[in-house]
Specification:
This protein is mainly α. The two termini are 20 Å apart. The chain contains six helices and no strands. The longest helix has 22 residues, at 59-80.
Length: 103
């Protein structure tokens, strides 16, 4: 998904040895509960669960993965400037904790 939407960033991740699962696994397992600021988490869950509740389609998961791409688009320039995978991970975590609006 990252390769398709953000090919330059995907290539950078490969160059520095960063597997996106190093940060996305936590997001999938906790549905962003430790990532999205609390004041926005209810809105995220409403959209994920209720707007994505069509049984024939997985719109909730489309929305979820769309949030991942949006986060990465917002910080792509900064991530491309980091030469080590651990610097990328630290930046992603610090950026997300500072934000109060993604939606």
């Amino acid at each position: 998904m990252i390769k398709r939407h953000l090919p330059d960033l995907s290539d950078h991740f490969t160059e520095i040895g960063l597997d996106p699962q190093m940060f996305t696994t936590e997001w999938v397992l906790d549905l962003f509960s430790h990532t999205i600021p609390l004041n926005l988490y209810g809105k995220f869950l409403d959209t994920f669960i209720f707007d994505g509740s069509d049984v024939k389609h997985n719109y909730g998961w489309d929305y979820f993965y769309g949030v991942i791409i949006c986060i990465l688009i917002c910080i792509q320039k900064e991530l491309m400037q980091r030469a080590e995978w651990d610097e990328v991970l630290l930046y992603i975590k610090s950026y997300i904790k500072e934000k109060d609006s993604f939606f």
